[in-house]
């Protein structure tokens, strides 16, 4: 048990506040209340979220109680959470729909039977103005402006709504209500978690310990994984897409992903790291092991094996996949007719219009850039001009488009 505990407290951990106090709590023998909140401003979970969820599951296996707080009330306020601008307010219905989808994915990792689910509206729904004023009296404006993203935005002349300044206080109050022993979050949540620790002491409770995990860098290799930055890998991603996205990320991220998202033993990771540093290991083979491990966690071993086979066939050997999205010429004409920027030539399906209308690209500028880079093929031949078009779609297999290594589309008559 001691070895298991040491593993949980060291593997994939950024900071523990205060480590000695947490050790004493763990040695007490009583089940601890482990708090983690989530803001259901969006419905999907990505691998960045999974880092913390895996840590919760590890503590559950040691006999502790997870308390998940659904921020249904604060999600209607808007929270920057380290972003450079305010988030839009959501309706109660939007929040509920997002939360339902989120929880279905959450329990793919965390044990539902050992989880206490709480909604913020249980206590904030009846909050009066007097309650808000009493809560705000506990902290100063200077304390709130010490939060890094607030101070950065203020220095840059970007707006900070008063409602946003309330958010750390409300998150701190959550800890008081559920009597949290430990709060979990990404390293960017350090300020908010410490506010909870302070407020608990003001309210006569033992202060919670703060357990912070590293932020998972997204597939761009630059910034933390985020849907808004389009550098994420979703938990619900189809196996082939999940596998392919992992294979496309920079090699330097592999060891972080192994450490934060897999159960590969530390000794094995040390061997892999040494082989890569000494250039005696094959980065492609290592990344395939990583991709297969992660896909297996969310889709099962058969799907992981199939995803690996798909990648080797389609990406490495350049063969067309057995299955790909299909669209008819008539549907394509209808979509393009609704695009005011499309070419207006009778019967002509311009390649740029087709790529945009079928979501193979996000914009016309991206379509043109990819064509110039030689990354667009039609029936196995490279498209060399952005003025190219689909004049006639043959019967049978139709016309096949390929964008990059993994985006395919079949157009049928």
What is the helix tally? 18
What's the pLDDT, averaged over the residues? 86
Contiguous low-pLDDT stretches (5 residues minimum) are: 79-86
Q: How much beta, percentage-wise?
A: 5-15%
Order of helices and strands: HEHEHEHEHHHHHEHEHHHHHEHHHEEEE
- C-alpha Rg (nearest Å): 25 Å
As for the number of domains, it is 3
CATH class of the largest domain: Alpha Beta
Q: Separation of termini?
A: 64 Å
- The beta-strand count equals 11
Biggest β-sheet description: 6 strands, mixed
Shape: globular
**Order of the strands making up the biggest sheet:** 1-6-5-2-3-4
Please tell me about this protein's structure.
The protein is an alpha/beta fold and 413 residues long. It is built from 18 helices and 11 strands. It folds into 3 domains: 2-213, 3-Layer(aba) Sandwich (Rossmann fold), CATH 3.40.50; 239-316, Tyrosyl-Transfer RNA Synthetase, CATH 1.10.240.10; 326-412, RNA-binding S4 domain (Structural Genomics Hypothetical 15.5 Kd Protein In mrcA-pckA Intergenic Region, Chain A). The protein has helices spanning 2-10, 19-27, 47-61, 92-106, 121-124, 129-136, 141-145, 148-155, 162-178, 190-202, 239-248, 254-261, 266-277, 283-299, 301-316, 329-337, 351-357, 364-372; strands at residues 15-17, 33-38, 65-70, 115-119, 182-186, 209-213, 326-328, 376-378, 381-382, 399-403, 407-412. A 6-stranded mixed beta sheet has the order 1-6-5-2-3-4, sandwiched between helices. The chain has a 5-stranded mixed beta sheet with strand order 7-11-10-8-9. Strand 5, helix 10 (190-202) and strand 6 (209-213) form a beta-alpha-beta unit. It starts with a helix and ends with a strand. Residues 79-86 have low confidence and may be disordered.
């Amino acid at each position: 048990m001691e070895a298991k505990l040491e593993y949980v407290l060291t593997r994939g951990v950024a900071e523990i506040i205060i480590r000695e106090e947490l050790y004493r709590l763990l040695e007490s023998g009583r089940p601890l209340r482990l708090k983690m909140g989530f803001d259901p401003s969006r419905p999907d979970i990505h691998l960045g979220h999974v880092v913390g969820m895996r840590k919760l599951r590890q503590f559950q296996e040691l006999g502790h109680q997870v308390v998940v707080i659904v921020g249904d009330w604060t999600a209607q306020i808007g929270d920057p959470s380290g972003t450079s601008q305010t988030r839009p307010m959501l309706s109660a219905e939007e929040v509920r729909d997002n939360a339902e989808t989120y929880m279905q994915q959450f329990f793919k990792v965390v044990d539902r039977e050992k989880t206490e689910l709480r909604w913020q509206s249980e206590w904030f729904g009846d909050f009066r103005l007097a309650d808000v004023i009493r809560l705000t009296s506990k902290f100063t404006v200077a304390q709130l402006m010490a939060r890094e993203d607030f101070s950065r935005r203020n220095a840059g002349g970007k707006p900070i709504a008063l409602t946003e300044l309330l958010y750390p206080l409300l998150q701190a109050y959550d800890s008081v209500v559920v009597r949290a022993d430990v709060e979990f979050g990404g390293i960017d949540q350090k300020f908010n978690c410490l506010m909870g620790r302070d407020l608990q002491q003001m309210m006569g409770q033992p202060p919670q310990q703060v357990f912070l995990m590293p932020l998972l860098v997204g597939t761009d290799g630059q910034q933390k994984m985020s849907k808004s930055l389009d550098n994420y890998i979703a938990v619900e991603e189809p196996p082939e897409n999940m596998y392919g996205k992992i294979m496309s990320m920079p090699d330097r991220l592999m060891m972080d992903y192994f450490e934060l998202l897999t159960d590969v033993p530390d000794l094995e990771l040390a061997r892999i790291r040494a082989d890569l540093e000494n250039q005696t290991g094959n980065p492609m083979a290592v990344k395939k092991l990583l991709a297969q491990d992660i896909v297996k966690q969310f889709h099962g071993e058969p799907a992981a094996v199939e995803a690996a086979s798909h990648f080797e066939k389609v990406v490495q050997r350049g063969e067309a996949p057995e299955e790909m999205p299909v669209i008819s010429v008539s549907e394509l004409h209808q979509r393009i007719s609704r695009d005011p920027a499309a070419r207006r030539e009778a019967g002509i399906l311009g390649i740029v219009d087709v790529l945009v209308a079928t979501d193979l690209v996000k914009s016309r500028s991206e379509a043109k850039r990819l064509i110039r880079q030689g990354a667009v093929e039609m029936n196995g031949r490279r498209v060399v001009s952005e003025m190219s078009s689909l004049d006639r779609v043959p019967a049978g297999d139709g016309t096949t488009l390929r964008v990059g290594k993994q985006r395919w589309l079949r157009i049928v008559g």
